[in-house]
From TrEMBL:
InterPro entries: AcTrfase_PglD-like (IPR020019), Hexapep (IPR001451), Hexapep_transf_CS (IPR018357), PglD_N (IPR041561), Trans_hexapeptide_repeat (IPR050179), Trimer_LpxA-like_sf (IPR011004). Residues 2-78 form the PglD N-terminal domain. It holds the Pfam family PglD_N. It comes from Algoriphagus aestuariicola. This is NeuD/PglB/VioB family sugar acetyltransferase. Keywords: Acyltransferase, Repeat, Transferase. NCBIfam families: NeuD_NnaD.
C-alpha cells in the first residue's frame, strides 16, 4: 500500500495502519525527499516508475497529508495511474449507520452523526465531531477537536481549524479557512479566512 506523503501527518497515518491493519506492507510517496526510508523502516518512493511497481503489488493508497490541495493532487495522480483510494478508520469512533463517509479518512475518537455526508478525500482528524445532517464537500480538512453542528454545510477544500465550532445551519463556502478556536455564527463566502469569537472575515480570496 502507498501512503501519499512522508511528513508529520504520515506518521499519524502509519500509527493507525499499524494498529488496525497489522502486517500490511507500506511504502511512502514523496518526490522531494532525499531520504530513502520513512521512520527508518519503510521505503520512500519518488518517481512514477516506483509508483507503478508499488501499485502492481497493491493498488491501494492512503492520503498521507492534511492539506486539501495536496490531498487532491495525490488523489488525481494515483487514480490516474490505476490506484484505489483506501479510507482510514481510527480507533474509538462513533459512526452513525446512516452516515455517508466511505471515501473519507476518519481518525480516532471522532463522532459522525446521522444522515451526514462527508465527501471524497476528506480528512476528519482526531476528536472532531460532525453532527446530524452536516454536508462536507470533497477534500475538506476538519482539524482535531473541531465541532460542526447540525445541518451545517462545508464546501470543498475547506480547512476547519482545531477546536473551531460551526453553528447549526451555517454554510461555509468552498476553499474557506476557519481559524483555530473560531466560532462561526453566520454564512461565510467562498475563499474567506475567518478568525475569532464570533468568527469574522479577515481576508477574501484574490483581494
Amino acid at each position: 500500500m502507498i501512503i501519499a506523503g512522508a511528513g508529520g501527518h504520515a506518521k499519524e497515518v502509519l500509527d493507525i495502519l499499524v494498529s488496525t491493519s497489522p502486517g500490511i506492507t507500506m511504502s511512502f510517496l514523496d518526490e522531494n525527499k532525499s531520504e530513502r526510508f520513512f521512520c527508518q523502516n519503510y521505503p520512500i518512493i519518488q518517481n512514477e516508475e516506483e509508483i507503478l511497481a508499488a501499485l502492481q503489488e497493491d493498488p491501494r493508497f492512503v492520503l498521507g497529508t492534511g492539506k486539501p490541495e495536496t490531498r487532491k493532487a495525490f488523489y488525481d495522480k494515483l487514480t490516474r495511474l490505476g490506484g484505489e483510494l483506501f479510507s482510514l478508520r481510527g480507533m474509538g469512533l462513533v459512526l452513525s449507520p446512516s452516515s455517508d463517509c466511505l471515501e473519507a479518512d476518519i481518525f480516532s475518537l471522532c463522532f459522525v452523526g446521522p444522515n451526514t455526508h462527508i465527501g471524497r478525500g476528506c480528512l476528519v482528524n482526531t476528536g472532531a465531531q460532525i453532527h446530524h445532517e452536516v454536508e462536507i464537500g470533497d477534500f475538506a480538512e476538519i482539524s482535531p477537536a473541531a465541532v460542526i453542528l447540525g445541518k451545517a454545510k462545508i464546501g470543498f477544500s475547506c480547512i476547519i481549524g482545531s477546536n473551531a465550532t460551526i453553528l447549526p445551519k451555517v454554510n461555509i463556502g468552498s476553499r474557506a479557512i476557519i481559524g483555530a478556536g473560531a466560532v462561526v455564527t453566520k454564512d461565510i463566502p467562498e475563499g474567506a479566512t475567518v478568525v475569532g469569537v464570533p468568527g469574522r472575515v479577515i481576508k477574501l480570496a484574490n483581494r
